[in-house]
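Explain my protein.
***
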Amino acid sequence: MNIVLIALVVLGGMGLSVEAGLLGPLGGEVGHLWATFSIFSVGAVLSLLLVIFFGPRNAPSYLAQPGWQLLGGILGPVYVVVLTLATPTIGIAMTMIAILAGQVGKSLLIDHFGWFGTPARRVNGQRMLALVFIIAALALIAGDKL
């Protein structure tokens, strides 16, 4: 089962690269904030349809959850605006590997300390080496542009 989930996440990551490729030109045409709004409005409609047709019927109230769990609602648009601004200037590959470096770096901290209610997973040398390789990949992709 883990291999299926990993494959789905890899496909999701591929989708983010496509999204970045679409957002850059769209932001150049209609403005970065309108491009961000378009992505989230289409996503909101799709999410609403999924909730209506496939959501659990007896789920706890959304509004009864702790406010900090809704932080992703703020971080999502910030992420998309950054994609829209950065991608046309530094390219999709550099944007994605920089995002990956940030994601893995912060994820290691979250895992290590068990933040946000996740189980703690010790960060060892192997996991740190993976981050070093990602940062090296960023430097190689950036070349002389850093």
Q: What stands out?
A: The first helix runs from residue 2 to 30.
